[in-house]
Amino acid sequence: MPAARSRPSRRSAAVRALIVGGAFAVAFLTACASPTVTPAPSSPTPTTTVASPVVTPTAAPSPSEDDPLAQMSLEQKVGQLFMVGVPLDGSDDLVAAEIRDRHVGSVFLHGRSTAGISPVADLVGDLTSLVDPQSTAGIPLWIATDQEGGEVQVLRGPGFSDIPYAIRQADRDAARLSRSAQSWGEELRAAGVTMNLAPVADIVTSHATRFDNAPIGALGRQYGYDERTVAAKAGAFADGMRAAGVLPTFKHFPGLGRVTQNTDTTADVHDTEIGADSPDVDVYRELLASGPAVVMVSSAIYDRIDATRPAVFSPVVVRQVLRGDVGFAGVVMSDDLSDAVAVTDIAPADRALRALDAGVDLLLVADDARVLPSMYDAVLARAQSDPDFAALVDEAVRRVIEAKAVR
User: Fold this and answer.
1) Are 250 and 295 in contact (CB under 8 A)?
2) Residue 197 — very low, low, confident or very high, per pLDDT cuts 50/70/90?
């Protein structure tokens, strides 16, 4: 690992002061966040679990002078597999060091800020100034945030609109919603944000039971209660983001609209209804046909697909259903792997390895960047000793780099 280089002149102290001054005094909601609501789940119905597929890496193209992977060290490749949280209410020094020394290729602006566009743009400028041939091989950072609307809107203040809850966005026709989303996306671009961890594509069971669905329906994060409505309205939001130059992210595959507990605050969250042929999965076929996007995989367990492990660690969910059945060839990312209760019984290093083995390309370390070193070091060590795993790394990095080029 290269020695740390001297840090460029920064405005971070002033930027942090502005952002802290406008930050909400609320707990951070991650990409799948909500208040702690843990009603008792319904009794699961025994079903047959789909057999795990054999993990066979796609043969990587032969390196050439024009191939960006050929110009990258293994350490730099591994860095492209991580998206690390930058707190808007504290220091970004740790993340800056990880960009320089562990070659992290994506960051996630998290917390809550009412400071407005200008100080956020300054912070983003400080981070993107760290991109060079030694840190990220010159590959630009993805700058992401959570700008869904309603309770899940990280960035507010001068220059940012107050975005309605998704269920209220759905009151607009698709054309109007797309125009609104384009305007919201242009605000993000003005702040330097290039990726939005939105929209939610989860189908909540019904209006009558929405409050039983702690992570989505209870917070109004859903666009509707049926496949057709969700496809139309989440698709319109995504179209608007793309028109603004912001890459959308559909979440939380294969669906969080039917669970009663929240994976951020509860372990062993099971969905007993969604199968590979459910509308919750089918909606992704329509959404993903409309243009470039990332798909975020849930950390819940899906008894009718793979009852043995969370979706984010399941090759059945990722490789067989999402890639095979749905036909998605783009970037698959995890939900937060840093401190979500659904995954914290697994050591951080193993979380990273299991997600990559399952077919995930981009690992979100949102709330606690202190776990990144053990994750990064484990992935690097295995890639150095295991040629098959190194091929998986190359495959994932190639998808990330290609997606960064197509916004």
Assistant:
1) yes
2) very high
Q: Is the pLDDT of residue 41 over 80?
A: no
Pull the structure tokens for residue 317: 């969910």
Of the candidates 403, 407, 390, which has an alpha carbon nearest to the alpha carbon of residue 77? 390
Residues 145-176 have pLDDT tens digits of 999 999 999 999 999 999 999 999 999 999 99
Provide the pLDDT for residue 407.
Answer: 63
Residue 294 near residue 369 (C-beta atoms within 8 A): no
Q: Where are the domains of the chain?
A: 22-32+61-405
Compute the distance between CA of residue 148 and CA of residue 237 in angstroms, rounded to an integer.
9
Q: Does the bond joining 252 to the residue before it have cis omega, within 30 degrees of 0? A: yes
Collapsing DSSP to helix, strand or coil, 334 comes out as strand
List all residues 6 or more positions away from 23 whose beta carbon is below 8 Å from its beta carbon.
88, 89, 111, 112, 113, 114, 115
Phi, psi of 98 (to 5 degrees): -70, -35
Per-residue burial over 305-338, b if 16 or more Cβ lie within 10 Å, else e, is bbbebbbbbbbbbbbbbbbeebebebbbbbbbbb
Strands 332-334, 294-297: pairing is parallel
> HSE on the CB side for 159, CA within 13 Å?
18
The CA distance from 141 to 256, in Å, is 29
**pLDDT at residue 364 tops 50:** yes
To 10 degrees, the CA torsion angle through 301, 306, 311, 317?
Answer: -150
Taking the domain 22-32+61-405, which CATH number applies?
A: 3.20.20.300
Look over the chain and give the mean of its residue pLDDT values, rounded to a whole number. Answer: 88
Q: Report angle CA 239, 244, 246 to the nearest 5 degrees.
A: 80
DSSP string, 339-393: S-TTTTTS-HHHHHHHHHHHT--BEEE-S-GGGHHHHHHHHHHHHHH-HHHHHHH
Dig out the tokens for 187 from the structure: 């605000």
Could you tell me how many residues make up the chain?
A: 407
Burial zone of 151 (CB within 10 Å; 0-12 exposed, 13-18 middle, 19+ buried): middle
> Do residues 8 and 125 lie in contact, with contact meaning Cβ atoms separated by under 8 Å?
no
Q: Provide the 3-class DSSP secondary structure of residue 204.
A: coil
> Which residue in 307, 308, 336, 306 sits closest to 318, CA to CA?
306
